[in-house]
């Protein structure tokens, strides 16, 4: 499995550390809504098909990236810096 | 269908083995049942068997999307053990071992349960302390555990690297003598045959495509072979749990599906007579009766439904194998395969009513589902029949995450790839 790091180019999956689902939304840190925190910490969409997920390129540039990957075929559909997505108001860890 | 016995073996041998009957009927789905069990793996079949035998509920169908035993019941490394730390786990898995001990007799089917013991190798004094603590917990909970010194292990399992060059020197090991292995296919076939004889319909090649509902209540399933109504719908679908939940309208669930690989080498002469696990990494190995070394290691570590993994993990597992048993370096690998694990958020299973009315759920086995098969089926059947949990599965609720009552053996937190 090759992951196309936006900084380093395509690299072997061994260079990356998997950080899991990238669609979770962390509640406001001041929130005391138990259900919202429970959903953030424990619940996952776990799709069979395209999955947005965090990887870190620990054996390379150490960037956190968001990869879209098909969980049925392991085909990587795209990758982008997590910080860019976060700055655009997207998902954050 | 006749009982299997020495006499029936002899009779069929004399007639050239031409008169054996299929072990279970190829049932056609009926329009309605008392209980429909989705998933014809070990847990689903065991549940059907205990529903019929313990609770007298025989209007039961087991729906399997492929052929019987095509999922994780036929993909595991066949290990049975109850060497756990937490009281909830010890109680549950030790109950399971007790059912295993009489399973061949109860099913009238030889599941080849072999109590050859499992040996967890410790490679540092800290790891030894941790294992001894676990052994004490096991004994306290009514189980069995023995601490073996380095010297005793060298005598018992001579293949382990005890040379001064060993990368991970063995300090000692925790042995559970009652643990062992079983023939995994036979477990599926044995439960299927025994359930079938009690009137359960086992329907293969029947994939569930949706749920029938009245309001919130689940009243049956839509399948590739037509709609089937049911008083109770029970799910035992392992890695496909999230997919079924989505069909029921539940988009997020505390399960991640991960791929786990397993391996078997060419057959060799008797080499290891117990299950051995490597504490320097994560590896478990035993030798099958046919002679192949059967082993596996960690998950690949990312969400997957592919039933196959990648090569980096293969390399890691092989290097651990060679570090532990140097003589295996020259063996050829016969097969490798993958299965989809239903990794829960605390590493423990979920056996419960709900989450919707009319639905019952059995999932979250991570990669320890095989050994649990009898206790899982027994307690799930109890939960379905009585609408309340058996004492052994009462802690394994779905609500425990919200209540903060997680059962996290390794203290890893909600990171499924680490369980």
Automatic annotation (TrEMBL), chain A:
It comes from the Bacteria. InterPro entries: SoxD, SoxD_sf. It holds the Pfam family SoxD. This is Sarcosine oxidase subunit delta. It comes from Chelativorans intermedius. The lineage of its organism: Bacteria, Pseudomonadati, Pseudomonadota, Alphaproteobacteria, Hyphomicrobiales.
UniProtKB/TrEMBL annotation, chain B:
It comes from the Bacteria. Residues 35-79 form the Rhodanese domain. SUPFAM superfamilies: FAD-linked reductases, C-terminal domain (SSF54373), FAD/NAD(P)-binding domain (SSF51905). It is found in: Cytoplasm. It catalyses: sarcosine + (6S)-5,6,7,8-tetrahydrofolate + O2 = (6R)-5,10-methylene-5,6,7,8-tetrahydrofolate + glycine + H2O2; sarcosine + O2 + H2O = formaldehyde + glycine + H2O2. Its cofactor is FMN; FAD. The keyword Cytoplasm applies. The keyword Flavoprotein applies. InterPro entries: FAD-dep_OxRdtase, FAD/NAD-bd_sf, Rhodanese-like_dom, SoxB. It holds the Pfam family DAO. Belongs to the SoxB family. PANTHER family: FAD-DEPENDENT OXIDOREDUCTASE DOMAIN-CONTAINING PROTEIN 1, SARCOSINE DEHYDROGENASE-RELATED. This is Sarcosine oxidase subunit beta. It comes from Chelativorans intermedius.
């Amino acid at each position: 499995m090759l992951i196309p790091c936006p900084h380093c180019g395509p690299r072997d999956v061994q260079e990356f550390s998997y950080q899991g689902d990238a669609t979770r939304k962390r509640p406001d840190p001041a929130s005391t809504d138990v259900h919202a925190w429970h959903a953030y910490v424990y619940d996952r969409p776990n799709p069979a098909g395209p999955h947005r997920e965090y990887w870190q390129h620990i054996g390379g540039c150490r960037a956190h990236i968001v990869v879209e990957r098909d969980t049925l075929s392991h085909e990587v559909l795209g990758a982008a810096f997590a910080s860019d997505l976060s700055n655009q108001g997207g998902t954050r860890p | 269908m006749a009982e299997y016995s020495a006499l029936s073996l002899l009779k069929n041998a004399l007639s050239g083995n031409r008169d054996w009957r299929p072990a279970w009927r190829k049932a056609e789905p009926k329009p309605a049942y008392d209980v429909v069990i989705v998933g014809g793996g070990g847990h689903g079949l065991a549940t059907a068997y205990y529903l019929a035998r313990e609770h007298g509920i025989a209007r039961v169908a087991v729906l399997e999307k492929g052929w019987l035993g095509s999922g994780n019941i036929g993909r595991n490394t066949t290990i049975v053990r109850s060497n756990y730390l937490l009281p909830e786990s010890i109680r549950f898995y030790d109950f399971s071992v007790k059912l295993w001990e009489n399973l061949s007799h109860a099913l009238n089917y030889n599941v080849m349960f072999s109590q050859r013991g499992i040996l967890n190798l410790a490679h540092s004094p800290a790891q030894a302390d941790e294992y001894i603590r676990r052994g004490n917990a096991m004994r306290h909970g009514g189980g069995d555990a023995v601490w073996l010194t380095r010297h005793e292990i060298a005598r018992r399992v001579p293949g382990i690297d005890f040379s001064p060059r060993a990368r991970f020197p063995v300090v000692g090991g925790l042995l559970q003598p009652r643990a062992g292995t079983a023939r995994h296919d036979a477990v599926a076939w044995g439960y299927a045959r025994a359930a079938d004889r009690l009137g359960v319909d086992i329907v293969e090649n029947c994939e569930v495509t949706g749920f029938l509902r009245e309001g919130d209540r689940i009243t049956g399933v839509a399948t590739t072979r037509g709609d089937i109504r049911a008083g109770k719908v029970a799910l035992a679908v392992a890695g496909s749990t999230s997919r079924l939940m989505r069909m029921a309208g539940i988009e997020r669930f505390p399960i991640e599906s991960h791929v786990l690989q397993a391996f078997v080498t060419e057959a060799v002469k008797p080499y290891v007579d117990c299950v051995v696990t490597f504490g320097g990494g994560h590896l478990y190995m035993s030798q099958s009766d046919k002679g192949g070394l059967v082993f596996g290691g960690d998950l690949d570590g990312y969400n997957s439904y592919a039933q196959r993994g990648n090569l980096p993990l293969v390399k890691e597992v092989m290097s651990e194998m060679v570090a532990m048993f140097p003589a295996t370096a020259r063996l050829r690998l016969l097969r490798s395969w993958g299965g989809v694990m239903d990794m829960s958020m605390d590493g423990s299973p979920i056996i419960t009513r709900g989450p919707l009315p009319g639905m019952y759920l059995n999932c979250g086995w991570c990669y320890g589902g095989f050994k649990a098969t009898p206790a899982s089926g027994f307690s799930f059947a109890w939960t379905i029949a009585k609408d309340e949990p058996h004492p052994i599965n009462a802690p394994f609720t779905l609500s425990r995450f919200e209540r903060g009552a997680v059962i996290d053996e390794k203290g890893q937190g909600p990171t499924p790839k680490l369980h």
